[in-house]
Amino acid sequence: MSVWSSILERAARAFDPEAEPPEFSEECAPRPNDVGFTAAVIGLAAKMAKADGEATESELRAAAQVFRPPQGEEENFRRAFNLAKQTVLGFESYAKQIGRKYRARPCLLEDVLDGLFHIAAADGHVAPAEIEYLAQVAQHFGFSDMEFRRIKATNLGPDAGDPYAVLGLLPGASMEEARQAWRRAAAENHPDRMTQRGAPPEFVAIAREKTAAINAAYSMIREELSVAAK
To answer: Is residue 66 assigned to a domain?
Structure first.
């Protein structure tokens, strides 16, 4: 059972002492029945949608796609989202709470950022204010500037002339460094791995897009270094 398809279900189970704890992948999932994580992530999503000044209905729909509230809980999810979106104030406490608790599970934290990028892009444009918001969340999660640069590039595409960002490299990296970074990134973001974790279609689609960006970036770097070596 994936974190995204079951997170709200686990939150509901937290109030049911008779419920059996659900199965979960410890590597990339929150602790079972972690209601605080649920509230914090919904808060981050809603406040991120507000970062550019207006939280749109398309962003709410995207958040529902990412978090997939159980049948019958859609209205409760909407109310929680709408309550949190009133202001961006307080998002740091949400980000710090998650970052402290799950620093040892970076793939979970990256999943959260991927979800936030998905919501940010739902209205067809990711505003500079949303990028700044996401950068601050990433910092509170413990990601370095280079790691955020990579996560941003794999979600939105690299800045012009900067395929190195997708692989988490600095310009000037060697062919071997690029090859190793490509293999690592391709393995970590392969859609089959996301499917094995039980992720919903939205996250498998994100993994496909990230894999395409990773392969394209490596191809560009390989061509660039081959030309330079001649």
So the answer is: yes
Domain that holds residue 96: 1-130
Of 28, 32, 36, the residue nearest 13 (C-alpha): 32
- Block residue for tokens 């979106």: 85
Q: What is the CATH number of the domain that holds 189?
A: 1.10.287
Among 65-69, 96-100, 143-147, 221-225, the least confident range: 65-69
Q: Residue 150 in contact with residue 167, Cβ under 8 Å?
A: yes
Q: Exposed e or buried b for every residue in 83-107, given b needs 16+ CB within 10 A?
A: ebbeebeebeebbbbbbebbeebee
pTM above 0.70, yes or no: no
The answer to whether position 44 is within a domain reads yes
Q: Which two tokens stand for residue 109?
A: 């934290």
